[in-house]
Amino acid sequence: xxxxxxxxxxxxxxxxxxxxxxxxxxxxxxxxxxxxxxxxxxxxxxxxxxxxxxxxxxxxxxxxxxxxxxxxxxxxxxxxxxxxxxxxxxxxxxxxxxxxxxxxxxxxxxxxxxxxxxxxxxxxxxxxxxxxxxxxxxxxxxxxxxxxxxxxxxxxxxxxxxxxxxxxxxxxxxxxxxxxxxxxxxxxxxxxxxxxxxxxxxxxxxxxxxxxxxxxxxxxxxxxxxxxxxxxxxxxxxxxxxxxxxxxxxxxxxxxxxxxxxxxxxxxxxxxxxxxxxxxxxxxxxxxxxxxxxxxxxxxxxxxxxxxxxxxxxxxxxxxxxxxxxxxxxxxxxxxxxxxxxxxxxxxxxxxxxxxxxxxxxxxxxxxxxxxxxxxxxxxxxxxxxxxxxxxxxxxxxxxxxxxxxxxxxxxxxxxxxxxxxxxxxxxxxxxxxxxxxxxxxxxxxxxxxxxxxxxxxxxxxxxxxxxxxxxxxxxxxxxxxxxxxxxxxxxxxxxxxxxxxxxxxxxxxxxxxxxxxxxxxxxxxxxxxxxxxxxxxxxxxxxxxxxxxxxxxxxxxxxxxxxxxxxxxxxxxxxxxxxxxxxxxxxxxxxxxxxxxxxxxxxxxxxxxxxxxxxxxxxxxxxxxxxxxxxxxxxxxxxxxxxxxxxxxxxxxxxxxxxxxxxxxxxxxxxxxxxxxxxxxxxxxxxxxxxxxxxxxxxxxxxxxxxxxxxxxxxxxxxxxxxxx
Length: 726
Hints:
Layout: H1 28-34, E1 41-45, H2 56-66, E2 71-75, E3 94-98, H3 104-108, H4 135-145, E4 151-154, H5 155-159, E5 165-167, E6 172-174, H6 177-181, E7 185-187, H7 192-203, E8 217-222, E9 230-233, E10 253-254, E11 269-272, E12 278-281, E13 295-298, H8 302-307, H9 309-321, E14 330-335, E15 338-342, H10 351-358, H11 376-381, E16 384-386, E17 388-389, H12 400-404, E18 409-410, H13 413-426, E19 433-434, E20 436-438, H14 452-457, H15 477-487, E21 494-495, H16 503-506, H17 510-519, E22 524-530, H18 534-540, H19 545-561, E23 567-574, H20 581-593, E24 602-603, H21 611-618, H22 639-649, H23 657-666, H24 700-725
Parallel strand pairs: 1-2, 1-3, 3-4, 4-7, 9-13, 13-14, 16-20, 19-21, 22-23, 23-24
Antiparallel strand pairs: 5-6, 7-8, 8-15, 10-12, 11-12, 14-15, 17-18
C-alpha cells in the first residue's frame, strides 16, 4: 500500500491560538464571540448542523479546526440568492460544499420518484429545505457571492457523481458534477486526507489550479495529452478479431523472407548458416513497464457514453475495477473541450488516525440555534457509536463501497469505549442503552486480507462473492471482546446492534452469533437476504438463501438457549436488475411459506455510479466483461412492472390481489389463486379494497380467460397497427 503522511503530522495553522469552539459558528455574532474577524474555511451543507462525528460536516469541520483553521458553517442556506452565502463573510482559503450525509435526490424522492414531505436531516423533519442536486446550486451561489474564492465539493453526493453518471430521476446520463458546479476540485470518498492537504497547501499560498496530485480528488483541465503521462486507451468496447498466428521466438528467418530487414530490432544479430545462407536473428523483448504513478486510463468520453448504453456499461466496469488504493490507476474522461481527471483513491486511515478523528471535541448535540426542535437523524444516532468504516461486500446496489472503499478502517477498542463513556456522561436523555455499535456493517470490525501484498494487488469486486475469499481473515474475536468490554461499563444497561449484519460472515463464527443473540438483540434483528432466487442474487452479488437459512437456525438455537423469544426481520428488494416476474412470484411463495408479511417494502433505486445502476441503464451484466453481443440481463423498468414486483412482496395486502390475479393468470400460474394453504392469494376480494370483483368471489378460471382475451387483443391490436402502417 502507498504511504501517506499522518493526518495529524502537519504543522498547525497560525489561527490555532484562538482555541477550540464550543460549536463551530454559523453567524457573525458567534464569530465575534470567538474573536474572529474572518473564517479561513466555510463549509456549506444541505443538512442541519449537528456537532456529532456521524455528521460529515461536523467531522470535517472539527478536523480542520484541529489543524488550526477557523471554520464556519452555513447550514441549509436559501439557494435562490447569495444572501445566506455571505452571512459569514469571505473565507480566506476556500468554500467546502456538500449535499450532506445523504444524497439530496435520494433524500427527497422515493424509488417511484414521488416527493417526500419530510427530511430526517432537517429540524422538525421539515421537507423542502434543500434543492435538487444541491451541490450544484450551492457552488454556483458561492461563486456569485465571492468570485475569486476556491470551491471544493465533496460528500457522498459529489463522490457518486465524479464522472459521467446515469441519473435515475431525469433518466439520462449527466456530466460529472464538477463540470455542472464549476468547482475547482472534487473530493471523493472519505475526505479527511484530501481536505487537510488542500487546506494546508492553500494556506501555503499554492494556487488551487496546481493541486492536481492529491489522491481522492478530481479536477478539470483542457482536453489533450498531459505531459509526462502515458494513456491507456479504454474508449471502446473490446471486440474479438482475427488472431495472428503465434510467433516462434526461436525461428530463424533469412533476410529475403523478412518484409524489411532494416526494421529489425537494433539488438538483433546477423550471421551465416552452415550452408552459407545469410540470416538475421530476431530477439524479442518485453514491453517496458510504464510508471503506474503516471499512467492514466482514458474512459469513453461523456458524449459517447450518453448516447451509447453499452459504452456506459463498459465505463462503469472500468471504474469499479480501478478502486483499490493499492493498484488503481488514474482515470480521465473527456467532457467537450475539457477533461475530468480522477486521481487514484485516497489511502485508508490507520487506526490511530481514525481515533484522532473521532476523539475530537464534538459537543455531540445539534447547534444551539435549533432550540428544542427535533432532528430525526440525530435522534437515530445520538446513542450509537461508529466503530469502523468501509465495506468489502461489494453489493452492486449499494453506494458504501463506491464512497468509503473496500478496505475496513477501524477505531481502537479504547477509543470506542471512550465514546461510549462520553455518551453515558454527557448526552442528554441517555437511559443506559447504546442503540448501536457498528457502521456500514455490523460485523466487519478488524476483518481484512491476511496479506497486505495480496490486498494491494487484488481487483476482486467483493471479498465475499461468489464465495468468501480464502485470504480474508474472518475472526470475530476482536468484536466479541469489544462487545463484552462495552456492556461491562458501569451505567450501561444494554448494547444493541442495529447496523446491517453480514450473516454469511457471522455463520463462520458460532461464538459471535451466540454473543450477539444472547446479549445484543432487542427482540428483533434486521438482516437483508434481499432475495431468494439465484438470478437477482447474482446481479446483487449476495449469498444464496441457503446461507440465510443456516444463520436463522443458529439464531433460533441461541435464542432458545438464552430463554428469549426473538425474531429475524428479513429485508428484500423488488425490481432489481436481473429480476423476472417469476423470481418475484417465487419470493412471494417463500415469504408465505415462512409466514412473513412485510409492512413496508423496498423497490430498487438506481443510485448514481453504482454497478446496479449501470445494469439498470444498459441492460448489460457489468460484473463480467461487457460485450455488444451477449451479456444481456432482464431489467424491470416502468411503473407497472415495479408496482407488480412490490405487490408480490406484499402478497397479503388485499389491495394488491387484483393486480396479482391478473399477473398470475398471464404467467400461467392461476393454480396459485385459491383459498387453500398452497395458494398465494384468495379468489375472493374484500369489499372496499378496489379492483374488479370487489366484495365477491373471483373464479381462477375467469382470470385465466380474461388473461387470454388480453393476450389475443394485444396480438390483434399489433396486426391492425401494422396494416395501418402499410
